[in-house]
Amino acid sequence: MKYNARQFDLSGLKGISDATLEQHFKLYEGYVSQTNAILERLAEFTKSGKLDEKRVLEFSELKRRLGFEYNGMVLHELYFGNLRKQADREPPSGSAFREAVERTWHGYAKWEADFIGVGKMRGVGWAVCYQDPASGFLCNQWIELHEGNHIAGYTPILVMDVWEHAFMLDYAVKDRPKYIEAFFSNIDWRAVESRLSARRTAAAA
Known about the structure:
Blueprint: H1 18-45, H2 56-81, H3 96-105, H4 108-119, E1 126-131, E2 138-143, E3 155-161, H5 176-184, H6 189-194, H7 198-203
Antiparallel strand pairs: 1-2, 1-3
Helix pairs in contact: 1-2
């Protein structure tokens, strides 16, 4: 299996410069490259049908590293994929995502405040809105080193990168809230809604 870096046409976003995006795309491409390299090396360990016990430490470290690189690749694809030019600041009334938010949080403003609060947490990481596949309810989660704190089985619906590389060319570190506001000005709510399935949405009704 070999992954290819995806292309995203995001030039001209509000408050997120093309220079930032150019560097961010290169960083993402590095995760794709590292994921492919680790998968290729791991394949060597099972060519004979069994694991060489003399190399078990190397094997273990590669397996651990794969989670970081692979999730770094996927989270960036979800992040870039839920941005677009000329976006609306909020999801439209009556949309499936807004209805799911209102069922879970009893008001869009409460959900947004919680999501923004997660994004402002100290440290570097990601703010992710997940959907529970069993109930259709939504929750917001802090993800630190790509592979940590994910809720098993939950579906990422909205992903915001709050590592400093996502905004430092445009904002001072202390101005992360300004970047978060810029992020909300560029959310592709149609892409977010596409990550909800009809079955999950109906289950929450």
